[in-house]
Amino acid sequence: MMKAMRLEEDFGLENIRYRDLPDPEPGPGEVVIAIEAVAINPRDRLMMLGGYGRMGGRPPLIPLCDGAGRIAAVGPGVDGVREGDFVFPHYSRTWPRGLPDPSAHGGAHGGPLDGTMRALMPVPATAVVQAPVHLTAAEAAALPCAGVTAWSAVVEQARIKTGQRVLIQGTGAISLFALQFAKLQGAEVVLISSSDEKLERARALGADHLINYRDVPDWHKPVREMTAGLGVDHVVDVGGAATLENSIGAVRTSGSISLIGVLGGSRPPFDLGRVVTRNIRLQGVTVGGRDMAERMAAAVAFHRMRPALEEKRFAFRDLAGALDALPEGRHFGKVVCEDF
Amino acid sequence: MMKAMRLEEDFGLENIRYRDLPDPEPGPGEVVIAIEAVAINPRDRLMMLGGYGRMGGRPPLIPLCDGAGRIAAVGPGVDGVREGDFVFPHYSRTWPRGLPDPSAHGGAHGGPLDGTMRALMPVPATAVVQAPVHLTAAEAAALPCAGVTAWSAVVEQARIKTGQRVLIQGTGAISLFALQFAKLQGAEVVLISSSDEKLERARALGADHLINYRDVPDWHKPVREMTAGLGVDHVVDVGGAATLENSIGAVRTSGSISLIGVLGGSRPPFDLGRVVTRNIRLQGVTVGGRDMAERMAAAVAFHRMRPALEEKRFAFRDLAGALDALPEGRHFGKVVCEDF
Amino acid sequence: MMKAMRLEEDFGLENIRYRDLPDPEPGPGEVVIAIEAVAINPRDRLMMLGGYGRMGGRPPLIPLCDGAGRIAAVGPGVDGVREGDFVFPHYSRTWPRGLPDPSAHGGAHGGPLDGTMRALMPVPATAVVQAPVHLTAAEAAALPCAGVTAWSAVVEQARIKTGQRVLIQGTGAISLFALQFAKLQGAEVVLISSSDEKLERARALGADHLINYRDVPDWHKPVREMTAGLGVDHVVDVGGAATLENSIGAVRTSGSISLIGVLGGSRPPFDLGRVVTRNIRLQGVTVGGRDMAERMAAAVAFHRMRPALEEKRFAFRDLAGALDALPEGRHFGKVVCEDF
Amino acid sequence: MMKAMRLEEDFGLENIRYRDLPDPEPGPGEVVIAIEAVAINPRDRLMMLGGYGRMGGRPPLIPLCDGAGRIAAVGPGVDGVREGDFVFPHYSRTWPRGLPDPSAHGGAHGGPLDGTMRALMPVPATAVVQAPVHLTAAEAAALPCAGVTAWSAVVEQARIKTGQRVLIQGTGAISLFALQFAKLQGAEVVLISSSDEKLERARALGADHLINYRDVPDWHKPVREMTAGLGVDHVVDVGGAATLENSIGAVRTSGSISLIGVLGGSRPPFDLGRVVTRNIRLQGVTVGGRDMAERMAAAVAFHRMRPALEEKRFAFRDLAGALDALPEGRHFGKVVCEDF
Prior knowledge:
4 copies of one chain form a homotetramer. By secondary structure, chain A is α/β, with parallel strands linked by helices. In chain A, about 25% of the residues lie in helices and about 25% in strands. Chain A is built from 10 helices and 14 strands. Chain A has helices at about 40-50, 135-140, 145-155, 175-185, 195-205, 220-225, 245-250, 270-275, 290-300, 320-325; strands spanning about 1-5, 15-20, 30-40, 65-75, 85-90, 120-125, 130, 165-170, 190-195, 210, 230-235, 250-260, 280-285, 335. In chain A, the strands form 3 sheets. In chain A, strands 3, 4, 5, 6, 7 and 14 form a 6-stranded antiparallel β-sheet that branches. Chain A has a 6-stranded parallel β-sheet with strand order 10-9-8-11-12-13, sandwiched between helices. The first copy, chain A, is globular and about 60 Å long. Chains in contact: A-B, A-C, A-D, B-C, B-D, C-D. The interface between A and B is large, with 37 and 37 residues. Strand 13 (about 280-285) of chain A pairs antiparallel with strand 13 (about 280-285) of chain B. Chains A, B, C, D: It comes from Marivibrio halodurans. Chains A, B, C, D: GO terms for molecular function: oxidoreductase activity. Chains A, B, C, D: Pfam families: ADH_N, ADH_zinc_N.
């Protein structure tokens, strides 16, 4: 029997149980991953609360899409994945390549399909990605959702070029991945945060310019100044209603803004006239295909990049504690659980 | 002396005078166009009212960016443009190619630079586009601003493929150009309007599906139904606050929306969460480079496409009448002035 | 028992047998297609001769990748495909989206995997495409390989815009699909052939300009003349060594050439200097992902497009006769076999 | 009077004279650059020999397109460029943005228009680019032709992503720029050369893997091995007939090859079948628009990148010596002339 956390009768955090489940066997084309660490995303909390409706599946449901470990068993007909490989499951089993189509979220782990929060996870071999071997399991567990989302935004959709300027908001997991990937692409990065301490930690990860938005609520103004009045080439917006107006003010003519988060509200008003006359692109971004996960893993491996993890670690059973750490401002980087 | 309309001491429609000005001579690298027809854009009205601030220049100012006619004189050093050529001036003298950069609007005709509303217009030869010869001057005059904007949105930025589905809003000049260009690209087009009569005229221009949004305020619902629940590939949004929510509801996962107009309000609230989770692109669109104007003119010429013009024509002197015809709902296609 | 053609002990056309095989049952996630017609590609001939080495698999092997029919049986766990649906199998089971990756050809039908040349074909439901219902089975059978290849070349990779000019070579199946798709995208098409009769048939399919390359071996010269000396925007090259030099001569600065065929030799010499100084793109093209097949099918359905088929039809058993019809110059459009 | 080198009666290196010419005055919209250093490209040699025919203009002609210096005078109507600015002239005056169109080469310096090889060079202000201020004039002079060409190839056309693998051939100026830009984009670079000493110098510039192609003529084999049999994502081919076959062997399925040089012959035979079945792109590359020069200069400035210059410097008068240093194998990086 293996350990697992599972939503039992219904959605709701109070319905999650730590329990023993039968060990899974790999079916044809499947492998079983011995999960060593998992990570938490804002998406997971909403999923556990039933906030995705039909798209989130139905309990009993094992939560979380993020995790990493080693291949413990290989089913018949599997090619290219071997016992002992250090891997992470791709976010979705029905999303082989590129941007999402209507079926992409239907195969997502942690809802509607069972997720990573168990000692042994059976997955189709075609949904497994080789993890960079210089990483710990906790670091690799940070990659599937937040890592691929930031990669899709900065590298695949915004197609940042070296020498371009990128503005990053905050120090949540997606933002710090976006910072790191923008630096790997050779960009000049401005990062804003409400905490001087976090700004300094962001500098250590490569941020070139730092702005405390508590001190400078109109942060788009110094951003324009430091770019000779032009604005940055790209903004990674995670604040939604709290930030979109300033993001539009900070971006250059024909520039683009990744819309990734709704931390500050999900109904942002904005000045459409400026978006039109300056030919600005607003691009919603949601994770990415398995091909993106592979390209991201190759870059992380080559550059020996280490994802930023929240220092406080949580036991696997302490999902409640991990979820409490999620809200903006309380953490720096990815929140992970390790001990089963 | 030539006839011209000009804003004299200050902005404001009351400051426009019909007057005689000295005939211009072409400088080095310049040509003079004998303007035969001009067309009106919502932009022009705002410009004449002083609504663009510094970007709109200063009176005395000859308004309008749209016009067409024949080359009346050729200055020294001009190559590739000859006396008698049927041409239109490109929207801006400082926008040779592609999407706008910060200098693109600075060379725009009708503000900040003198525009088309005069019998003789001197222009750098590099800012002149050969007009399709099957068109009347009034039809060619419709192309520079609304034509290129719709072309940039549908063909260059959304890159519509044959067989894709496109939703068009209303029957203003940009919308009807977008309809025609989407059809030339082989798309299936849904058009919405508040008037059954205009819907029938849109059908004659190629629209495949028609919806009266007065009768069906939730028009995104039948649009999803006619696309097997998926949504259309692209929406050309001109309504802003009045339409953006429905546009998001009508577009497919990973689809895109051109943001072109603010007819229904310039501060649209919208459900950011759906834009994020469905990876939707919102693309502001403003005119385009001279290379786009040339590609558009080539397509119009090859297909013998005729721009849709409002039936009621206005005399050159009756600028006030033409401006009165502009508001949504009063016209179908481009409003033009012809008789000097 | 079902009828099938199968390579038995070894590669070689003499080893193909018409025989009875057990009726297949659909496994989990699979459907069975009752094949009504199949079509032949130059690839298939080479495959049957063993010309693809390891990539072609090993006998016993059922040849051909092209075919169409109706769903006869649906296995457990299949969603979105129903008994009676009119479908064609995608070219490869391991190519869900986009351009090929190393695994794309590994799941190809007709080598290395069993193909369409049998009355009943089991296929994963995820590798099945809904065929346009206005087509006959023979017409739909023409789509999987030649149709998708031409679509990838013209629509997805060259991204032809309306009003652009495209040059098509010959009247083989890929060339005629390229002609039809270029017309659906609104392009102006020049087609060259060695036969005046075939040129007239190409005109009926939409070709705007015709050149008999027997009469005009330097056909790139009139092509440049008819484009004001500039050259066409795109060339679909199927002749390889026999045509590449002229293709380069016919294409405009910054234009592109699809490299699809080697009919005139597989080691084309060419003037590299002109490719460099004129920034020309040469793009090898091989079929495409299932997403392309779906977009192509949507366009064919919307436009009621009918693939061009060689008039002479062959019986299923007369594979030898069908293969004899394949060489350039003997057919017009796709060669199909129908009667089992 | 200013010093200049000029082709006098006819093409041919013997017709170049070191002479005094009248100091130029800036016309409307023009600036005058006080040239401090110039650099030599293979293009320039061919131009001086008359090898470009009509495209090269007619003597008297001042050669060279590469140079850098400070603004000595500013004509009327110039905006955004000031006396004392450290600048280089863009390669062509008629190439504002993007890939070349038919008019792009018509405004090139050093043929058909007068070039940089003079103490004072008048240029339209719109054709001037601000040089990175950390560079010497000799370093900045290396940027206009070779720098922009490598930038266009690696950053704009191949769109290298971080973590991708790029193969670079040789240690000429374009190759070393391609190496540096690929590293700035976060790529993993394999560089081949015939000299162990040059390989070591390339390592110092960032090359990750080195192959001496004298020792390993089939260098594509170890390249495939080091990429798990897949091949690199991109090859920068400068060898033409001497390298194209191996370049095709070294690149992955759906990868791309920049065709930039013809050092090893201009009529490369190649295996077209592999290009087709593996969907490989061969992209001719020639310089780029002024917008690319500006983006490149921004990246060079931000990263404090220093172009690689051949150690041996030449006096301005010793053009013959500089040209002798150009052939492959004799130099490392850009050949420059400094003393007037």
